[in-house]
Amino acid sequence: MSAILDLRGVSKRFGGVQALQDVSFSIEKGHIHGLVGENGAGKSTLIKILHGVYTKDKGEILFEGRPWAPASPAEAQQAGISVVHQEIPLCPNLTVAENVFLGHPILKKGGRIDFQEMEFRTAELLARIGQTGISPRRLAGTLSVAEQQLTCIAQALSHECRFLILDEPTASLTPGEVETLFEVLRNLKAEGTTILFVSHILSEVMELTDEVTVLRNGRHVATRPTKELTTADVVRMMVGEIETDDRAAAEHKPQAEVILEVKDLGQKDTGLKGISFQLHRQEILGLAGIQGAGRTELAQCLFGVHPATEGEIRLKGQPVHITSPRQAIDLGIGYLTEDRRNLGLFWEMGVKDNLISVIVDRLTRTLGRLDQKEARARGEQAVKTLSIRTAGLDQGIGFLSGGNQQKVLLSRWLNAEPSILILDEPTRGIDVGSKAEIRRLIRGLVAEGLSVILISSDLDELLALADRVIVMSRKRISGTLAAHEATRERVMELATQK
Amino acid sequence: MASATGTGTGRSGNLPAWLQKRETGVLVALVLLIIFFSVATPTFLTTLNLLNVMRQVSVVGIITLAMTILIIGQEFDLSVGSMYAVIGILVGTLFNSGMNIWLASLVGLLIAAAMGLLNGFMTVAARIPSFIVTLGMMMVYRGVALVLSGGSPVSVRLPQTFYTITGAPRLWGIIPAPAIWFVLVTVLGYFLLHMTGFGYKVFATGGNKEAARLAGINTNRVKVIGFILTAVASGLAAIISLSYLGTATPTQGQGFEMQAIAGAVIGGASLMGGVGSILGGFMGALIMAIVRNGLVLLGVSAYLQELVLGIVVIIAVIIGQYSTQRRR
Fold first, then answer.
1. Among A35, A141, A143, B199, which residue has the least CB neighbours within 10 Å?
2. pLDDT value at position B321?
3. Considering Cα of B258, then B261, then B265, then B270, what sign does the dihedral take?
4. Into which CATH architecture does domain A3-239 fall?
C-alpha cells in the first residue's frame, strides 16, 4: 500500500495563533483514515489547506506523489480531492440537482444546460448513497439539515474524487442515516477511494476507520492503526489526560417549584400540537427526539419566534403570551440556537461584540453611549470562565474554531442572566474536552439557580445531564421519562413511535 | 466598538490591526487623488479651491453620512434627492408666505422625518425591499416637488443671522458654514454609529438580521430610524443649500441618491450590510467631490466627468476591498 497523501512539516499561523506546527504524517491509499482532535487542534485548518482555501506557511504536501498546492477549492476538486463540510454550503434557491452539479453543470451540444441528465445523474448518486427519498427536483432550501448534508456528499461524489474528506458528517444524522453513510463509505473504499473522516464522535471513528491521526494544539500527536487503540487511548492523546467520568452524581437538586408550565400548546405553522409539560426550578429537562420531531420548533415557540396559536404558557404561575424574542428575553428566557452559522453569530464582528448582543440595552448609558469598558470586562470574564481560545476580544469571530464560537454564543446568553435557558444542541461540533467543560458549566449554573431545557441529539449527553427527559415524535410529546427509567432503548422507542 | 471593517470575516490575519481596516485603503485612495490633482493642475491645491471643495461636498456629504448608516443596516434610500427637492421648495415657500425661517426649517425637518417614517414603514411592514419602495417614492416625491412649486424655482432673501449660520461661504474669513455643518454631522454620526447602543444594533441588524432578532434586537425599529435619519439629513442638506444659493428648484438633487450611495460604498460600506464606518463615508464623499472638482480644473468635458467619476468609484472600491482581502 502506498501513501496517497504525505504531509511533512506543515505549519500555518493566523495572527497570534499557531494553528498548525510542524505536522507530518501519511495517509494510505484506499484506507478510511480518521482525524481527531480537540477544538482548535488544527483539524479544520488542515482540511482547508488540503482543500485549497488556505495556503500553508511552511512544509510540504504530496498528493499521489506530486506537490499539492491548489490555488482554490475548485482546483482541488478537479485534481481529485473533495470535501464535505461541517457547515453546509448549498444554495437554498436552487434544486438538489443544480446544487450537486454546482459549478460543473452537464451541457448539451450547443452549450445549454441538460437539466434532465443532471437530474438523472443526481438520482443515481443519491441512490448510491441510499437516498432515493430525496427528489433531485426539490429546492435545497426545503431539505432538512440531514438531507442537505447527504446532498453535499452526492455533490462531492459528482467530481470523480479519489480522496474524499468528510468534516463532522454525522452531526445531524440519525443512527439509521449514520449506518447508511458508513455503508456508502465502505463501498467507496472498496472502489478505491481514500477517505479522511474527521469527527468528534469517537465511537464512530473507532468503528469505521483503518487508521487514526490525533492532533493536539496544532501538533501531530500520533498516527496509528485503529485496531491497536482503545477509545480511552485516543482521548488521552487528544486531551493529554484521562477524561473524568461524565455521569458524576448531580450536584444540583431540582426544586419542587414549577417555574414554567405549558398546557396544550400548539403552533399552527410548525405543526406543534398538544404540548404539555412542566419545568421545575433548577432542573435540567432533556428534550429528545429524532430530526424533525419538533424540538427546535418547540424551543422557538417558547422563545417567541413562532408564537403559540393554542394553549397556555405559565411563567412562575403567571400566564404569558410570548410574541417576540425580546419579550422572552425580558421574561428571563434565553435560547441558544442550533444553527450558529446563520442564526447565531455576527460574522463581521469580533468576539466581544458577539458577546454583548443580548445585553446592549443594559450596557447603554446616558445619551445612548455604549459602555465599552463594561463590555470589555464582561468579555474578559467570559473568555476566562469558558476558556475561550482567541487571540483577543477584537479577534474576528470567523477566526475561532467552531467549538470556541459556540462558547462565545453560550457566554452571550449567560451574560443576559436568564432564569430559564433553552440550549439547542449546545455541544454539537465541539471536541471532547470542551464538551465536558460545557457540561460541567451547565451543571454549575443549574446549581446556582438556572433552569435548563436541553435539546441534544447526543443521547449519552442527554442521559448524563437531564433530570427528566421528554421525548418528542412528529411534533407531539410521546412520553416523559424520569432519569432512572431513561435508557437509550426506551428513548428511541418513544422517539420512533408511530 | 469594531467599526466592523471586515476583520470579522478574517481575510487578512497577518497585518497589524490598523492596516487591515478598509478605511486605510480609502485614505490611501484619497491621498493619491489629492497628489494627482495637485500635480496635474496648479489651481487645485490653493486655499480658495480647497474651500470651494469643502463647501461643495457638504450638501451631498451630509446625505452620504446618513446613507452610510442606512446601508450598514442593509437598506437603501433612493428617494433622498427627491426629498431634498421637496424640503427645499417647502421651506422656501413657507418662508416666502410669511413664516419665520427658523420655524419653517423646523417644519421642513419634521416633514422630512415623516417622509423617512413612511419609507421605513413601507419597507418593514409591507416587507417590500427598500430598493423598490424608495425607487417609487423617488418618483412620487419628485412629483410633489413639481406640484408644490408649480414647476418654477423658489427664491428667498433670508435674514442675515440665519444665512450666516447655515449658508455663509466665509465665516471668520475662511470657513464655509455648510462645511461646518458637514463636520458637525460627521461628529454626531460618529458618536451615533460607533459609540451608542443604537449604532451597535445597526451593525447587528445589517450583519445578520435573524441573529439580531433572536438576540432580542428590534430590527424593524432600527431600520425605520435609519430611514428617518436619512430623510432628516436630506432635509438639513436642503435647508443649507437653500440658504447658500438663495434658491430651491423642483429638479434639484437629481442623482444625489447615486452620489450618496457611491460615497458610502467608496468609504467601505458593504452593500450586504454590517460593514462600514462614518469616517469612511466622510472620506468617500470627499473623494467624489475632489474628483469632480479636479476634473473641472483640468478642463475635462462635462460629459466625460460622469464617466471618469464612475471609474473612480470602481477603482476606489477595489483598492478598499484589496486592503482587507488577502489570500490566506
1. A141
2. 64
3. negative
4. 3-Layer(aba) Sandwich (3.40)
> Is it the case that residue B322 has pLDDT exceeding 70?
no
Which residue type does B324 have?
A: T
Q: What is the ipTM of this complex?
A: 0.83
- pTM for the whole structure: 0.75
Rounded to the nearest angstrom, the gap between the alpha carbon of residue A386 and the centroid of all alpha carbons in its chain is: 18
Neighboring chain A residues of B203 at a CB cutoff of 8 Å: 346, 348-349, 353
Name chain B contacts of A339, Cβ cutoff 8 Å: none
Give the domain ranges of chain A.
3-239, 245-332+418-498, 346-411
Spatial separation of the C-alpha atoms in residues A55 and A77, rounded to whole Å: 16
Q: Are A41 and A431 in contact (CB under 8 A)?
A: yes
Asked whether residue B328 carries a pLDDT value surpassing 60, the answer given is: no
The topology (CATH level 3) of A245-332+418-498 is Rossmann fold (3.40.50)
Nine cell digits for residue B201: 444594533
Strand partners, A479: A471
| Low pLDDT (below 50) residues in chain A | 242-249
- Give the pLDDT mean for B38-58: 90
- What are the grid coordinates assigned to A55, written together? 495556503
Q: What pLDDT, on the 0 to 100 scale, is given for residue A286? A: 94
Determine contact: A288 vs chain B, CB below 8 A. no
Which ranges in chain B belong to alpha helices (H)? 17-20, 22-40, 47-72, 80-96, 101-125, 130-149, 160-166, 177-195, 197-207, 209-214, 219-245, 256-266, 278-297, 302-322
Q: Under a CB-based contact definition with an 8 Å cutoff, are residues B198 and A368 in contact? A: yes
Contacts of residue B214 in chain A, CB cutoff 8 Å?
Answer: 303, 305, 325, 335, 337, 343-344
Select from B69, B198, B200 the residue whose CB has the most chain A CBs within 10 Å, as the one to mutate to test that interface.
Answer: B200
Q: Shortest Cα distance from B229 to chain A (angstroms)? A: 16
CB contact under 8 A, A349 and B8: yes
